[in-house]
Inverse folding.
């Protein structure tokens, strides 16, 4: 039980560091740590498939893509745009109000039942694969089309185009 | 693995909702706070992940595998979104030599 609270504290701590770090590279490294704590959350809930997928897709693919883009763009601390102080205060205030609204609405729910894993097989690859390929077969196939179109779109957008550059 | 999964037996569902709400708010704060387009993008990822965690918690709570399948689809969507979004950011950088989103204020009109 205390493992959950420790990992939850780490998640919140690292996610705060993500948005406050001055250097974007540090931001990405903290985001990797945050996603690692999320992986531990999934393992604690025995969602093994999601833990592995989170590890491979988020930490392996998406964040490496972020790091790669950052290296291409060649940012550093000097080129980091800074907002005026009052805008920062307003941003923290706005986000804080959202948090307070969510948490105070949660207070009215009262004490909830604990999260108990009724079926230990729930998050395993075997069980999820059966659900994915029976009930969710069509969305699964459509998501492959989505990924293909995203790949084509990314290549199309990132290709250097002389004519469009001239018009802008 | 058995001993690990026994450790969550006593965590109330409310605490998962609380954790997700806090991380989602931190993501919103990041979007409002920063002007660097890539960091804003990372805050969006943070929000997506907090929702993923909540979906998994509810899926375990209800004993329904559909929630975890949804998380899988959200991850596929996030991968596509990141690919296109980063391509757009690279294109913006190539045209304006900056990833400050205030450079794009002409998009407002």
């Amino acid at each position: 039980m205390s493992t959950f609270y420790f990992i939850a504290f780490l998640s919140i701590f690292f996610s705060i560091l993500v948005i406050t770090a001055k250097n974007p590279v540090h931001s990405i490294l903290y985001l990797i740590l945050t996603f690692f704590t999320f992986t531990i959350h999934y393992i604690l809930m025995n969602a093994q498939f999601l833990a592995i997928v989170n590890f491979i897709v988020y930490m392996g693919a998406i964040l490496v893509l972020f790091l790669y883009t950052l290296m291409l763009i060649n940012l550093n601390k000097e080129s980091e745009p800074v907002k005026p102080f009052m805008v920062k205060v307003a941003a923290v205030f706005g986000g804080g109000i959202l948090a307070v609204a969510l948490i105070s609405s949660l207070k009215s729910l009262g004490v909830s039942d604990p999260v108990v894993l009724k079926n230990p097989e729930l998050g395993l690859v075997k069980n999820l694969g059966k659900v994915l390929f029976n009930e969710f077969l069509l969305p699964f196939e459509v998501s492959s089309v989505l990924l293909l179109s995203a790949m084509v779109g990314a290549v199309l957008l990132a290709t250097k185009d002389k004519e469009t550059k001239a018009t802008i | 693995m058995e001993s690990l999964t026994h450790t969550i037996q006593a965590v109330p569902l409310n605490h998962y909702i609380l954790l997700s709400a806090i991380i989602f708010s931190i993501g919103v704060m990041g979007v409002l706070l920063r002007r660097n387009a890539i960091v804003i993008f990372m805050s969006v990822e943070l929000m997506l992940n907090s929702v993923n965690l909540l979906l998994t918690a509810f899926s375990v709570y209800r004993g329904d595998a559909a929630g975890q399948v949804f998380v899988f689809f959200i991850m596929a969507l996030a991968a596509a979104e990141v690919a296109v979004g980063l391509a757009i950011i690279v294109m913006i950088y190539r045209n304006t030599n900056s990833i400050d989103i205030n450079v794009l204020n002409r998009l407002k009109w």
